[in-house]
From TrEMBL:
Catalytic activity, as annotated: ATP + protein L-histidine = ADP + protein N-phospho-L-histidine
Residue spans crossing the bilayer: 12-33, 161-187
Principal localisation: membrane
SMART domains: HAMP, HATPase_c, HisKA
HAMP domain segment(s): 188-240
MF term (GO), any: kinase activity
Keywords from the UniProt entry: ATP-binding, Cell membrane, Kinase, Membrane, Nucleotide-binding, Phosphoprotein, Transferase, Transmembrane, Transmembrane helix, Two-component regulatory system
Transferase found in the keyword field: yes
Protein name per UniProt: histidine kinase
Species for this entry: Paenibacillus enshidis
EC number(s) from the headed UniProt entry: 2.7.13.3
Residues in Histidine kinase domain copies: 248-461
A family per Pfam: HisKA
């Protein structure tokens, strides 16, 4: 007995469908065979009866008596020939014995109606299965009416049909046995890999993400196995990235905290001149701002992941926004003697968005360009409007990104160069903000030659709309 489960369901369903199909085919086949045998007998006797009707002229002559020898000339081997009157009384038969019984079967009535009558049933006297075929014969002028009736036994035919039925049932049973064996094998081929996948999944649920589903499984099972293997691989990768992030952020937090603590203790001890105190306070302020930036970046990412980030939408001029950003990073660029160039026509470049978040996006992109550019290099910022879109491109001539890292650089916590610090969330957050504004962020880079980051945003249709025309708070993802 097959225990409950998918294997049992597959076997039962497959077996049941084939059983119904075989049953239907056998019923149709046996019905067709029976009809073929019965129709063959009927057509043979019918043709003979028609032949007799054409040649039985003596039966049609007025006043002519029926001759037994004449009747015997028209009988068929193993078939009883009877001649009846209109009332169904047997006048004469091919056996030569007189019969006083009255025939009232349906074939007689059909013959009297003008057609060839056919009846299949059991003889009252013997209980034998027979077929009777009747045909009306009329004398000249219609004064004498006779019924020519042939009766033949169906025992031989029924025995043959019974044998064919047993044979078809045996063949059907053999087919069902083969189907049962095949369905069990088919069920095992499905259930066995499912059991393996279930076992591996249970181990993954326990945290063993180094296990993998082995073997090349076909079709959907193969896709399921590949998906689970990929999931485990991604979990391992995510855990590694998370560990790297924790290690990196711990270092990033420790460095400013160490500076703040050191200078705080130094200043608290007293005895320093005002100039040295000023330097210490500047370092504390700078490191505090750095800490605030790190914490805000982590908070922004957390809010984006939980869809709690709110956007204050309005009209933003990207040209003015980029000019403001260039002023913000000017001092940092000057330290590395990097030249910032803005290429934009003297016209408004208006978009519908959150000015602070868009500033955060472009500030992060430009800051990265400065961070990864060498001294005495250039950063080109361009603004273009086409096809109802505004494209902002930031191109640097820095270290560039390899093709392998370019596919991962926007993944959360990923950092191309861990020595430059940061959380590895800047580009992830920037991309999500761009997508929330209905835009897209593209990156193109060649290792050792530089990187180009392009942000495309939908242009505002009506430049004259005031900045407070539509000011609403929407949850993050509402404009994705």
């Amino acid at each position: 007995m097959i225990k409950k489960g998918i294997r049992r369901q597959i076997v039962l369903h497959y077996f049941f469908v084939v059983f119904l199909a075989l049953l239907l085919v056998e019923i149709i086949f046996l019905f067709a065979i029976r009809s073929y045998y019965y129709d063959t007998i009927y057509r043979h006797i019918e043709l003979h009866a028609d032949y007799v009707a054409d040649l039985s002229q003596p039966l049609r002559m007025p006043g002519q008596s029926l001759n037994a020898n004449l009747i015997n000339n028209f009988k068929i081997e193993r078939t009883l020939l009877e001649v009846l009157d209109e009332q169904g009384n047997v006048i004469i038969n091919s056996t030569g014995f007189e019969s006083d019984r009255k025939i009232q079967t349906s074939d007689v009535a059909q013959a009297l109606a003008g057609g060839n009558g056919r009846w299949v049933g059991k003889q009252p006297e013997t209980g034998q299965q027979v077929m009777a075929i009747s045909k009306k014969l009329s004398g000249i002028g219609g004064d004498n009416i006779y019924i020519l009736r042939y009766v033949t036994s169906l025992d031989v035919v029924n025995d043959r049909l019974f044998y064919i039925t047993l044979l078809s049932i045996s063949v059907g049973a053999a087919v069902l046995t083969i189907v049962l064996i095949f369905s069990i094998g088919l069920a095992n081929s499905i259930v066995r890999p499912l059991n393996e996948i279930t076992e591996v999944s249970a181990q993954m649920a326990e945290g063993k993400f180094d296990v993998r589903i082995r073997g090349n499984h076909p079709h959907e099972l193969g896709e399921l196995a590949a998906t689970l293997n990929y999931m485990a691989q991604e979990v391992v990768h995510t855990n590694q990235v998370k560990d790297d992030f924790i290690s990196s952020i711990s270092h990033e937090l420790r460095t400013p905290l160490t500076s703040i603590k050191g200078w705080s203790e130094t200043l608290n001890s007293g005895g320093y001149d005002p100039e040295e105190t000023k330097i210490g306070m500047q370092i504390i302020s700078k490191e505090t701002d750095r800490l605030i930036g790190l914490v805000e970046e982590i908070l922004d990412f957390s809010k984006l992941q939980s869809n709690e980030m709110k956007l204050v939408m309005g009209t933003v001029d990207l040209r003015e926004l980029l000019q403001e950003i260039m002023l913000n990073v000017w001092a940092k660029a000057e330290m590395k003697k990097i030249k910032l160039n803005l290429d934009a026509e003297e016209q408004p470049y208006l978009v519908h968005g959150d000015g602070n978040r868009l500033k955060q996006v472009f500030l992060n992109i430009v800051d990265n360009a400065i961070k990864f550019s060498s001294e005495n290099s250039y950063i080109f910022i361009s603004l273009r409007k086409a096809d109802q879109q505004i494209a902002v491109s930031v191109q640097d001539t820095g270290i560039g990104i390899s093709e392998e890292n370019l596919q991962k650089v926007r993944d959360r916590f990923f950092q191309v160069d861990h020595q430059n610090g940061g959380t590895g969330l800047g580009l992830t957050i920037s991309q999500q903000f761009v997508e929330r504004h209905g835009g897209e962020m593209l990156m193109d880079s060649v290792l050792g030659q530089g990187t180009t980051v392009t942000v495309k945003l939908p242009a505002l249709e009506e430049p004259g709309v005031p900045s407070d025309f539509v000011e609403a708070e929407t949850k993050a993802g509402a404009h994705k």
